[in-house]
Amino acid sequence: MTLRSPIGRARGLGSAKEGAGDAWATIVTAVALVPLSLWFVISVIGLAGADYATFKGWLGRPLNATLMVLTVLTVLYHSQLGIKMVVEDYVHGAAAKVALLIGTKLVAAFLAVCMTVSVLKVAVGV
Amino acid sequence: MPPMPLMRGPEQGPRSASRGRPAMTTRNRPLSPHLQIYRLPLLAIMSITHRVTGVGLVAGLFVLAWWLGAAAAGPEAFEAAQDLIGSPLGYLLLFGWSVALFFHLGHGIRHLLWEAGWGFEIPQAYASAKVSLAATAVLTLVAWIAGLA
User: How much is the mean pLDDT over chain A?
Assistant: First the structure.
């Protein structure tokens, strides 16, 4: 007989060791991405073959710039959580795992800032 | 007649000389079905496809960053990017990403339904798998008809 509770034995197991917060963040970003991704697809279809002036005019509308930045940030947060899960499940070497987990965060942060700056430059730049 | 035991009992295994216990050997033990010879059911295929499409969509994010960066760089860079996206290879990649996005969206909604506590029964799981596959096909078709019209 053991005095440890079932939750006490279960904590820290699994390939990620922890992660209820990540699971919840995945759900919240997924809910946000349902309308955002549909908006994105419809927008991209409308912009097929557009010239620069058309694109700048479209992204210059505040609602479009807002939704684009929101889409970019939400999708990158969701994506880095997904890649983290894949790395935790399939990469077993400690050094490679830590390197990939850190690299994922840094690349996601770079892409998030890079895309936000690009959107703002087109939307409000001269 | 009693059924044959699935695992070899201690009396069948070779014994080590020292303590009379079975030697540390895994020979002739039955193995669980390995992924490479196990025919995956639809639900398992849906699950791994969700992961594969997720990773594939991340590759698409780099292209999105390149496209937005080209727009930030100016009219020449943006119109060169638009030409490249409008090429046959560009359309092929876009088609792949559109299928991946709609699959990931549809299967993601199944995950959200499971999180809400709905659809854990096997018939419900198969029904939602088929609905999300049909949605993937319909949304891809509608998007491309709208895009090419």
Answer: 94
Could you read off the pLDDT of A6-32 as tens digits, one per residue?
888 888 887 777 778 899 999 999 999
DSSP-derived secondary structure for A35-54: HHHHHHHHHHHHTTT--HHH
A119·B54 Cβ contact <8 A = no
Cβ of A105 under 8 Å from any chain B Cβ? no
What DSSP designation does A92 have? -
Residue of chain B minimizing CA distance to A87: B55
Q: Which of A30, A86, A111 sits opposite B61 (nearest CB)?
A: A111
Token look-up 């700048």 returns: A56
User: Per residue in B33-44, pLDDT tens?
Assistant: 677 777 889 999
Q: CA-CA distance, A30 to A32, in Å (whole number)?
A: 5
Cβ contacts (< 8 Å) between A109 and chain B: which residues? none
pTM of the model: 0.83
